[in-house]
Amino acid sequence: MKRLLCSLPLALFAGAALAHPGHESVSFFSGFGHPIGGLDHVLAMLAVGLLAARQAGRARWALPVAFVAAMLAGAGLGALGVALPAVESGIALSVLVLGLLIAFVVALPLAVAVPMVAVFALFHGHAHFTEMGHGSMWLYAAGFAIATALLHGAGYALARVLPEGAAAVRIKRVAGGLIAVAGAVFLAA
């Protein structure tokens, strides 16, 4: 029993050595883990969910769907050998801008918000592809698309779980501010 208890933490942390691409076979699971493994991706995707929660009715789907579709397009551009300029800066800028929109409770019309989110998603998708390594693009893309959708859902759920009122607005604004600060740090790095 003592050996089992000592070896369990080692087994749980063994995957940390595989955090960088090229060390494992590319699969659905490596694609699924990529967005979750980067704070910049996590914050941007949670922010999209938080912003989506502000929309009414079916419009709530617009931002997450546009993000996932454009992210897959960005990965496709990478697969075709099309280079995007300043991918890491684009990702950092997405975190900063989305955080600011939440912090300052900016309500952009969908005609502006959807293309903006889609442009940001191109950078995220291109980065996912660039860090893919060798293997099945389709399985890897399915993994990062599903992980992204789940992160959008988590941001949406977080926004919807909070009760209506001034305190909930303050919590969301603080969350947006923290996301924006992180984006500024990523941009400065």
UniProtKB/TrEMBL annotation:
What InterPro entries does the record tag this protein with?
Answer: HupE_UreJ (IPR007038)
Q: Which UniProt keywords apply?
A: Membrane, Signal, Transmembrane, Transmembrane helix
Whether Transmembrane counts among this entry's keywords is yes
Cleavable signal peptide:
1-19
Q: Which residues cross the membrane?
A: 35-53, 65-86, 92-125, 137-159, 171-188
Protein name per the record: Urease accessory protein
| Organism listed in the record | Pseudazoarcus pumilus
Q: List the lineage, top down.
A: Bacteria, Pseudomonadati, Pseudomonadota, Betaproteobacteria, Rhodocyclales
